[in-house]
Task: inverse folding
């Protein structure tokens, strides 16, 4: 749930009234161009799980199910609520779970007769992210075989945004508890991990694609790869012997060099580094090799190195943001720890900076770390617009507008960036998508 103070028209523990919500949505829509629906109409409902207590203390059995649990536990602000939520899930208090792109919803039974509606929201992947995932999966037959066997290869965990990172899972609930998350949303999240154990394609549905669509696309790409591999090799490029080029000339022009090789369509894949206790961490080697290949390809194709101007801290944040997240495996936690230590920061500092980078790149990181005095204009118009949308009064300070649990920060790029904190904790974390409309940012955070 998005922690916040009660708004006008709210009853404790209940969403805003329909009229107030409609007014806010109308004003926000007037300030932003109309767009397509956020998610396509795909949804699946899974029956209620029987009560179960894991003997080893781990709620999920698969590595991707545990990645889901870790993303929840690394973001939670209250371990006690997590423990109660896990107990609710183990006792079977979570009803049937409905999954749709970007949302997981179920009714959860608490101490009162009437169940609460809990929800977990997460980002869906864009077309470019899906292209990268499908290309990676289809390029290796063993990946397709594993997916068909309801298994997710470890190599695919590096696909940007597929597995949840700390801050990716946004809980919500109709109960009056303003914890982040409450025990009902935590129970739903733990049960969702069991769902992912049984069918990893549910994870792809959460991110925006259903099973049949993915399998059809993988089959098509596999056929394209097979056809390309069976195509005869291209003729050899013309060459000139080095001794001919370097030989002294006696009044005649040196031989003409052949044209340079064309740049490849995409960076090459690094070699697979096996785990060896005497060797460096294979995950770190894979990360560095992939980084070097991507930078070299970009420089070869454009003549520009996109990260050359970054500071060591910005580059560390960028590297960590390209990784699935600190809550997946011991190796990824070690990556966050080592990057933070090398720059005299804490893993929490790095996790917060990664959330800002994923929110808006280098501009989002600057918004996190820099307070500045904006000129009159959009900043001065924001407060009346928020009040007109029946939102609470925001306190101004430099480029920031704050309530007890919500905050807007104006970036130098003219966009508003949303932040959330546990009520009156001043522990602000980037949330949502930047927007030129401050009302739109807040209504998206609140799920209106």
Result:
């Amino acid at each position: 749930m998005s922690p916040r103070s009660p708004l006008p028209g709210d009853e404790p523990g209940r969403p805003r009234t329909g009229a107030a919500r409609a007014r806010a949505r109308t004003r926000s829509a007037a300030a932003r161009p109309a767009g397509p629906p956020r998610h396509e109409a795909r949804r699946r409902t899974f029956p209620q799980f029987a009560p179960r207590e894991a003997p080893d203390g781990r709620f999920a059995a698969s590595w991707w199910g545990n990645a889901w649990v870790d993303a929840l536990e690394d973001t939670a602000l209250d371990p006690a609520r997590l423990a109660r939520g896990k107990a609710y899930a183990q006792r079977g208090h979570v009803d049937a779970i409905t999954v749709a792109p970007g949302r997981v919803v179920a009714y959860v039974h608490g101490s009162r007769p009437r169940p609460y509606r809990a929800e977990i929201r997460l980002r869906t992947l864009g077309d470019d992210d899906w292209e990268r995932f499908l290309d990676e999966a289809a390029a290796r037959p063993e990946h397709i075989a594993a997916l068909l066997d309801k298994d997710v290869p470890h190599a695919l965990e590096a696909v940007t945004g597929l597995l949840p990172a700390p801050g990716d899972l946004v809980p919500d609930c109709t109960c009056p508890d303003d914890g982040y998350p409450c025990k009902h949303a935590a129970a739903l999240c733990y049960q969702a991990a069991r769902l992912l154990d049984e069918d990893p394609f549910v994870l792809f549905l959460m991110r925006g694609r259903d099973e049949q669509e993915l399998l059809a696309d993988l089959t098509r790409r596999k056929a394209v790869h097979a056809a390309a591999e069976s195509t005869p090799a291209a003729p050899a490029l013309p060459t000139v012997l080095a001794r001919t080029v370097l030989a002294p000339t006696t009044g005649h022009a040196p031989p003409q060099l052949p044209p340079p090789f064309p740049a490849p369509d995409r960076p090459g894949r690094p070699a697979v580094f096996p785990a060896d206790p005497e060797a460096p961490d294979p995950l770190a080697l894979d990360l560095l090799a992939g980084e070097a290949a991507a930078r070299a390809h970009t420089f070869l194709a454009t003549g520009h190195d996109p990260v050359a101007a970054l500071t060591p801290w910005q580059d560390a944040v960028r590297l960590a943001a390209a990784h699935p997240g600190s809550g997946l495996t011991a190796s990824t936690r070690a990556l966050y720890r080592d990057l933070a230590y090398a720059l005299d920061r804490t893993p929490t500092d790095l996790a917060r900076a990664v959330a800002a980078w994923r929110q808006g790149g280098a501009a989002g990181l600057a918004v996190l770390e820099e307070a500045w005095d904006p000129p009159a204009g959009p900043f001065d118009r924001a407060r009346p617009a928020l009040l007109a949308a029946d939102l609470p009064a925001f306190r101004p300070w430099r480029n920031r507008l704050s309530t007890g649990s919500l905050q807007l920060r104006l970036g130098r790029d003219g966009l508003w960036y949303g932040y959330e904190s546990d009520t009156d904790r001043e522990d602000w974390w980037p949330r949502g998508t930047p927007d030129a409309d401050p009302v739109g940012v807040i209504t998206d955070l609140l799920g209106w």
